[in-house]
Amino acid sequence: MKIYAAEDYKDMSRKAANIISAQVIMNPGCVLGLATGSSPIGTYEQLVEWYNKGDLDFSEVTTVNLDEYKGLARTEEQSYYNFMHEYLFSHININLEKTYLPNGMEMDSAKECARYDELIQSLGGVDLQLLGLGRNGHIGFNEPGDAFEKGTHCVDLTPSTIDANKRFFASADDVPKQAYTMGIKNIMQAKKVLVVVSGADKADAVRDAFFGPVTPKVPGSILQLHNDVILVADEAALSKIPKE
């Protein structure tokens, strides 16, 4: 695992965007696994800035997103489909037919999870997977539990995750209670994993995920077993890691 310390959120975003840019430049037809939430917004904004300068070409890139709320239509403002278009897809020259997310409006969980797993496999897997890290150590919507969930699955969101996401909705009651998410196996099969973390409220999660025991109680801890993980985090998020 490589750790890149950043001064602040902006510096973290720039460093992470550099890594994604290098992936796209070296392999224009790469498959990017993308994340939502507040952590990667700055990274997407930096990629858009470099695209506008003519430094990046996304025309051959394929993307697969980690997750989507179940029961939320793509047209809803809070959907992750809408999020990706707002912060990235509508600002770059990506082929929208090659951007994939779970279908939140498919009520048959088994059917949708099998479809998404098959899709990822048909693309040859993910070349670079971007992740955030939840305060409870979750990655994607893989919440703390008794076992690591392997493939794409429907998850009941924990109260802490609902609380963290309520800022995007009118109230906590409006936050969907379930979501489709890639599983740990999907994430671990990515060739490279890039984790972006910012803020003192994530310091415990960073310490537990990357320097604690590997346990499904801290889903992100599984990344310790991946052979190519890059953690880009600001000083506040890194404040509780062991000192060498």
Walk me through this protein's architecture.
- The chain has a single domain, classed as Rossmann fold.
- Strand 9, helix 7 and strand 10 (229-234) form a beta-alpha-beta unit.
- Helices cover 30% and strands 17% of the residues.
- It is α/β, with parallel strands linked by helices and 244 residues long.
- The mean pLDDT is 96.
- The strands form two sheets. Strands 1-10-9-6-2-3-5 form a seven-stranded parallel β-sheet, with helices on one face. It has a three-stranded antiparallel β-sheet with strand order 4-8-7, with helices on one face.
- It starts with a strand and ends in a 10-residue tail after the last strand.
SSE pattern, N- to C-terminal: EHEHEEHEHEEHEHEHE
- Strand order within the widest sheet? 1-10-9-6-2-3-5
How many domain regions?
1
CATH architecture: 3-Layer(aba) Sandwich
Helix content: 25-40%
Low-confidence stretches: none
Number of extended strands: 10
Distance between the termini: 15 Å
Number of alpha- plus pi-helical segments: 7
User: How would you sum up the major sheet?
Assistant: 7 strands, parallel
Under the CATH scheme, which class? Alpha Beta
| CATH topology name | Rossmann fold
